[in-house]
Specification:
The protein has 1082 residues and is an alpha/beta fold. Helices cover 51% and strands 14% of the residues. The strands form 5 sheets. Strands 10, 11, 14, 15, 16, 17, 18, 19 and 20 form a 9-stranded mixed beta sheet that branches. Strands 8-26-25-24-9-21-23-22 form an 8-stranded mixed beta sheet, sandwiched between helices.
Length: 1082
């Protein structure tokens, strides 16, 4: 069973620490490890069968509690069935409606429309008929999109007014964008679940029997203590467990609410404002871009190459193109391509998505690799504990019924033929109770739940550090991350962009908004390109308010520059008609539009990466507006004008500026008139005329250099993967410390995406290891890099914000999406959302990930010490003397300290800087390290030795020979119990710092730890001094207390001395596994 204590079988190639061994042995070990149900490398994409296997293999006494935060496989299947039913239901409604409509047309009748829409000329029933049934005829009867907008008192361009009274009115008539959610479980449910533990049920039955027999044999005055004390101890365990679990549940509920609360832009009163998805109302006009989630049911107002992924609603992974002939948009779907605006016609429960979400309860359960491994550890310990308990039960029963068990006064407890049946049964129940209580202590039900506890705590704290965890497993996996592939823009930089350089008309403008040097023709064409070829917008408030510019940071920077050049945004856009749009594409690094002017002249405008757009240009516009041909060899050194543009780009890139080129061309051919042909029309991108090249400054984030240095110290390599020019990427990488000097900025440290993707798979694996910066990369290049690094054995974290980043985010061990710039598609594919888009927050996630792992290890060390000590003490005492020094009630109290309170104290330790001064925890590394084995064996050996000496020689050592035998025995057992509990309290401090000598460092920062230790100490004093009747203890004098404290205190200096003992680097399990296999092979 030693493999249960082991790390994941995922092996790193060329792992020097693993030592040299034969390939056959490696392969055998891999097969051996992978056969274990408790070795799941990553639960991110684990099969249902694999998840089911480890559940069935685990030894569990309370399944409802043990598996509470894991994925409910039965519920997951039910959820899929409900989903299928709702989809079928929606399709049946549509089919029935179409059938009915056909019948009405045949009979020449029309369906009377309801018009009870309050202040609005359209009712909710009519809207439902139009949108949910995709009824194009009903939409046309309402006057199309314009007629529907008028009926809803909204404008397709400016949206609703959006004041409070307007919003309230719309919510009253059409409902709000919320749906009834199933309530979380109440505290009483958690109390009921805590009852389900088999051992606790047996103990309650034993307590009831003990109570009945005690009253019968000793009378009600004295006979009720034993039974009631066990029952009370069990109740205390149940209540404390339920409270702890209920608190965790509330934390998860709050985090789930945060995950669902998407923020998006709507147009209200002509301006773009950001609102919560819950605040959207019918009549709202919403801009849609690639990667957005459709937040409500609606009708398309305008769209450019708009494609929607409706798989979340229809179940079919088919991309649907939206146009005026197919304008219906369903809530919950994703924008796969293009852009557009929609008119909201249905919200909340009046949408299919709302019906769906109201019908299913979201299962937040998810196993983590650590949880699965801990179930393996718990199962192994449980089997050992169960075996020990059975052994104790058999030995004590044999001793009891053979007359070898004596009372404290020396009299034999059971005499065959003389002892009454009720007395014999009472004696047997007491023995059985002790055996069952040993099982309670030995089977660590709380061990896997400690993962959930520390994750719940960490997730709450990470929210304050601007990281929203979507998948629990990512929290702990981040602690093992060996490399982070980070975006540049917005993550390493501030994402606050301004145009600082501009080359227009073949000359540099100084300052960049010096419009005096531009001719009217050039200025007009440039402003047209800036205003029309954008996803952003400009809002000019009435009066003297500041102009509001919205859009992506790059778009905003260029629009602000255009305004400084004298652009009137609305006027320019009204002077020409948008014919076709090619949205910005991260593969091609450019976006374009086709415009038709009032004179019917068609212009194609392009904007994108400077050197890519420049490569498409054959001419440029000079300062006077004249079109001047560029030499055909414009990118060669002998072309002076081309050299000027090339040098301009290189100069700006070297100063870490993002270079964007703006170009256009007239289009003399006929534009496709048919909508279908227009959608398939590819905008011409050759023979362009260069208008301008601008340099946009996006400064590095303050503190990012320190954050990267911290990662490097922690053994985590940071790689920059950006779509920007290689020179810009190099300049930023040098500035923030990813590259140490110019000497490092050589291939393959610094590589272009196209070069990397041209290599074979084997070459990519070799080169991926060396890459520090990848420039001009496409999302597919990022995916290839992630795959290559993972094949090399790395645990890879990836940041991403675009829709095309989704595959890389999904493929990576940890996908980190950006909360501000990230699309909904990117967020849904990610495991953690970085709310402030800041790289420093990514580093904080690494700290928390390491903290989760470290806290679990602290708890395991503490719990195993208690397990080992309690089991050995009771077993040795039971076999040798027929009596156990720790009775059922005392063991239940120890279990409470060890399990629930211990988990609360140790699993909530905040992360320390020490965690970032050691290498990542490898997936191969064992859960219980050699350091932990050393610590727990030293402490357990000390406790067992001292307490067994007290058990057998206590009366002599404590000078109790002359006392009453019963009283002397009780004093001895009370001191053993008291010293044992105090040892655990003192050892809790040792467990805080398994590999540091100063175990008190930072203890004052964890108030919960101090509070739990103080509460445990106070309750121990109360148990000994005031309620001894229930726990079978007696009051102790100050000398005995001093002795107990002294015994416990020794554990501190002992821990310091123990940490001076060196431990072998080869993990203990590997030593045994090797011996086992070598023995098996010979």
């Amino acid at each position: 069973m030693s493999n249960l204590f082991k790390g994941s079988p995922y092996r790193r190639r060329r792992d020097l620490e693993s030592g040299s061994r034969s390939a056959d042995l490696d392969r055998d070990l891999d097969d051996y490890e992978s056969s274990s149900p408790f070795n799941i490398t990553s639960t991110k994409n684990a099969s249902v069968e694999r998840l089911r296997r480890w559940r069935q293999a685990a030894l569990v006494l309370n399944a409802s509690r043990r598996f509470r935060y894991t994925l409910d496989l039965k519920k997951e299947e039910e959820k899929k069935q409900i989903l299928r039913k709702i989809r079928a239901h929606a399709q049946a409604i549509r089919a029935a409606y179409l059938f009915k409509e056909a019948g009405l047309r045949v009979n020449g009748t029309t369906d009377p429309q309801k018009t009870s829409g309050g202040d609005f000329a359209v009712s909710q029933e009519q809207l439902t008929t139009v949108t949910r049934d995709h009824n194009i005829t009903a939409l046309q009867e309402l006057g199309g999109v314009k007629g529907l907008a008028e009926a809803l008192k909204t404008s397709p361009e400016k949206g609703i007014l959006g004041d409070d009274s307007d919003l309230v009115k719309r919510k009253n008539v059409f409902g709000s964008n919320t749906y009834p959610q199933k309530k979380g479980r109440s505290f009483w449910m958690f109390l009921w679940e805590a009852w389900q533990d088999l051992t606790l049920i047996i103990l309650m039955v034993a307590a009831a029997a003990s109570l009945a027999l005690g009253i019968k044999t000793e009378g009600i005055k004295e006979g009720w203590y034993d039974g009631v004390s066990i029952a009370f101890a069990v109740l205390l365990v149940i209540v404390v467990t339920a409270i702890s679990d209920y608190r965790q549940s509330l934390q998860f509920q709050n985090l789930n609410e945060e995950k669902r609360n998407i923020h998006l832009e709507v147009i209200r009163g002509g301006r773009r404002v950001e609102v919560s998805i819950y605040d959207i109302v019918v009549g709202d006009v919403i801009p849609l871009n690639i990667g957005d989630q459709v937040p409500a049911d609606g009708i398309l107002i305008t769209g450019h190459s708009l494609s929607i992924d409706e798989s979340s609603m229809t179940g079919e992974s088919k991309i649907v193109h939206k146009s005026t002939s197919e304008p219906f948009l369903m809530s919950g779907c994703k924008v796969a391509d293009g852009s557009g605006t929609m008119l909201v016609t249905g919200v909340g429960i009046n949408t299919e998505w709302g019906l769906l979400m109201a019908s299913i309860s979201e299962d937040t359960g998810e196993e983590t690799p650590l949880q699965v491994r801990l179930n393996g550890v718990a199962t192994f310990i449980g089997i050992v504990g169960l075996s020990v308990a059975v052994l104790v039960l058999v030995v004590l029963m044999i001793r009891y019924f053979t007359g070898h068990t004596k009372n404290p006064d020396g009299s034999i407890q059971f005499k065959a033929g003389r002892t009454s049946v009720s007395a014999a049964v009472d004696g047997a129940i007491k023995i059985f109770t002790v055996a069952v209580t040993i099982v309670v202590v030995a089977v660590p039900e709380g061990l896997p739940l400690a993962v959930t506890l520390t994750l719940a705590y960490s997730m709450r704290k990470m929210m304050r550090d601007k990281a929203l965890v979507r998948r629990l497993s990512a929290c702990e996996t981040m602690g093992s991350a060996t490399t982070i592939c980070s975006d540049k823009t917005g993550t390493l930089t501030l994402n606050e962009m301004t145009v600082v350089d501009a080359y227009v008309g073949g000359q540099k403008l100084d300052p960049p908004d010096n419009k005096a040097r531009l001719s009217g023709v050039l200025s007009s064409l440039l402003i047209q390109g800036v205003a029309q070829n954008t996803n952003g917008s400009v809002f000019v408030p009435e009066g003297a308010g500041d102009v509001e510019v919205s859009g992506s940071p790059t778009e905003k920077a260029i629009l602000v520059w255009g305004l400084k050049l004298g652009m009137d945004f609305d006027a320019v856009r009204s002077q020409s008609t948008l014919v076709h749009v090619f949205p910005f594409n991260s593969e091609k690094k450019r976006g374009g539009v086709a415009l038709q002017s009032a004179e019917s002249q068609v212009y194609i405008h392009w904007k994108g990466a400077a050197e890519i757009v420049l490569a498409c240009c054959s001419r440029y516009s000079d300062a006077s507006g004249e079109v001047v041909p560029m030499d055909e060899d414009k990118l060669q050194l002998f072309s002076l004008q081309a050299l000027f543009f090339k040098n301009a780009i290189e100069d700006m890139a070297a100063r870490s500026l993002r270079c964007v080129a703006i170009a256009y061309r007239p289009y003399e051919e006929k534009v496709p008139a048919d909508e279908q042909q227009l959608m398939q029309w590819k905008l011409p991108e050759d023979d362009l005329i260069l208008l301008a090249i601008v340099g946009i400054k996006d400064p590095c984030r303050p503190g990012v250099r320190d954050a990267i240095q911290l990662c490097q110290n922690a053994g985590v390599k940071v790689r920059m993967v950006t779509g920007d020019n290689l020179q810009t990427a190099k300049a930023i990488a040098l500035e923030c410390g990813i590259l140490g000097s110019d000497a490092d900025a050589v291939e393959p440290n610094l590589i272009e995406g196209r070069i990397f993707r041209a290599y074979s798979d084997e070459q990519r694996e070799e080169i991926a290891e060396k890459i520090s910066v990848m420039g001009r990369s496409s999302p597919n290049d990022k995916l290839l890099l992630v795959q290559a690094l993972r094949k090399r054995g790395h645990v890879v974290a990836v940041t991403g914000d675009g829709t095309n980043d989704a595959p890389a985010l999904h493929e990576a061990d940890i996908g980190l999406s950006m909360g501000i710039q990230g699309t909904e598609v990117a967020k849904e594919s990610s495991d953690i959302i970085i709310l402030d888009d800041n790289f420093a927050s990514v580093v904080k996630v690494v700290r928390w990930g390491r903290s989760v792992y470290a806290n679990i290890q602290k708890f395991i060390q503490f719990q195993l010490t208690v397990n080992v000590a309690a089991l050995i003490i009771n077993v040795v005492a039971a076999i040798s003397s027929g009596d156990v020094p720790l009775n059922a009630v005392q063991l239940l109290w120890v279990n409470l300290i060890m399990d629930t309170l211990g988990a609360l104290a140790l699993a909530t330790e905040p992360p320390t800087d020490h965690l970032m001064h050691r290498p990542p925890v490898g997936r191969r590394e064992p859960l219980i390290t050699n350091i932990m084995w050393r610590n727990l064996l030293i402490q357990a050996s000390y406790q067992v030795s001292v307490l067994l000496v007290l058990n057998f020689q206590g009366k002599r050592l404590l000078s109790l020979q002359h006392d009453n035998a019963d009283h002397a025995n009780k004093v001895k057992n009370t001191i053993i119990f008291n010293a044992f509990v105090l040892c655990q309290i003192f050892n809790e401090f040792n467990a805080r710092k398994p590999d540091e000598k100063n175990v008190f460092r930072g203890v004052t920062k964890n108030r919960l730890f101090i509070g739990i230790v103080a509460m445990t100490l106070i309750l121990q004093v109360v148990i000994i001094e005031f309620i001894g009747k229930f726990t079978s203890t007696v009051k102790l004098n100050w000398k005995h207390w001093l002795l107990s404290v002294g015994i416990a205190f020794v554990s501190w200096p002992l821990a310091i001395v123990g940490k001076l003992i060196p431990v072998p680097k080869t993990p203990l399990h590997e030593f045994f596994t090797r011996k086992f296999y070598r023995h098996g092979r010979h």
